[in-house]
Amino acid sequence: MKKFIPRFDFPDYNIPRTDFKGHQLKALKKFDSLRPQLNLILELRDVRAPLSTRNVLIDQLIDPRIHQRLVIYTKRDLVADNTHYLLKLSHWQQEIDEDFILIDAKRRQSARHVLDIIKSYKRQLEVRSQGLALPTGYKVLVAGMPNVGKSTLINTLRGAGSKVARTGAEAGVTRSTSETIRIGEPHDNIYLIDTPGIGLPGRLVNERQRMLSLSLCGCVKTNLVDPVVQADYLLYLANLQEPHKHYPGAPTNDVYKLLRRVQPRGAPRDNATAAAVHWLRQSHRGLIYDRELLLDTDSFSLRGYLSRQPQPEPQAKQQSRVTAHDRRLQNVHQLFPKLSGTQ
């Protein structure tokens, strides 16, 4: 019998590179205005796709002189049995010296652990400031890509009672930056700020594969990428990991052959789209969606990877361009005062 050989390359399908929307740009501007008040940034990422759900725009918000950052990997329960991968992830995080934890955002125990860490950061700040009180409390911004579990974590931290942050399976449920939400005991004086999920503009995405990983994580709208293409990428990843766990029958690289096997009952025959949607909705516990992280720690360096990624323009350069634009507008207003006065 011929030995099955999985694909090691994936086709470069013509799919969108971004799902960046207007409300996300508005949220970024709101973040910037809140920066002086913030003490801690909680950046949530999906543990199944740490590279794809990392957002370099959040890096720009952080001033190490006044902000601390904790990376929270959510959905740990979906990879809990993949101990080899979790050890590799820990190695890569230590390589770039980032504080991080792994949680299941729905579990109270995880929320208590996060709250204890927040309190620890707060105590460190109080020691550095020699016990001076924080007039507006200890402010914590909860940020990350869409649908990585920000609002779920906030509701769990808040504890019993009605939800204070909207949640949903679809990306983009939270559309605006919230007012402060108090957590812990009243004397803790700790306030969270929930935010919309922020994606990356297309100019900061250099690989279409990132959009496929985000689709599998539910971080972009389900109709943005063709379900058959998503299913083909999931098949590609499953074959590189554990194909026998994620679809019936012998291993195959043919997505249409797979979709005929997983066709849901009652669906029109040979309807590839319906079969793809059905298969994508099934649980695929243990699968990693960033293919680079299937390598071992000797073959992949997170520090090296990050150094090669596109970076947003420094804020000073953005400001200089805005200022130059404003000067041009001022010249127009001086030349045509009546025209500018009617706008």
Automatic annotation (TrEMBL):
Keywords assigned by UniProt, alphabetized: GTP-binding, Nucleotide-binding
InterPro entries given in the database record: G_CP_dom (IPR030378), GTP-bd (IPR006073), P-loop_NTPase (IPR027417)
Protein name: CP-type G domain-containing protein
Listed GO CC annotations: mitochondrion
GO MF term (any one): GTP binding
Domain CP-type G: 22-201
Gene Ontology annotations of biological process type: mitochondrial translation; ribosome biogenesis
GTP-binding recorded as keyword: yes
Pfam families according to UniProt: MMR_HSR1 (PF01926)
SUPFAM superfamilies associated with the record: P-loop containing nucleoside triphosphate hydrolases (SSF52540)
Organism expressing this protein natively: Torulaspora globosa
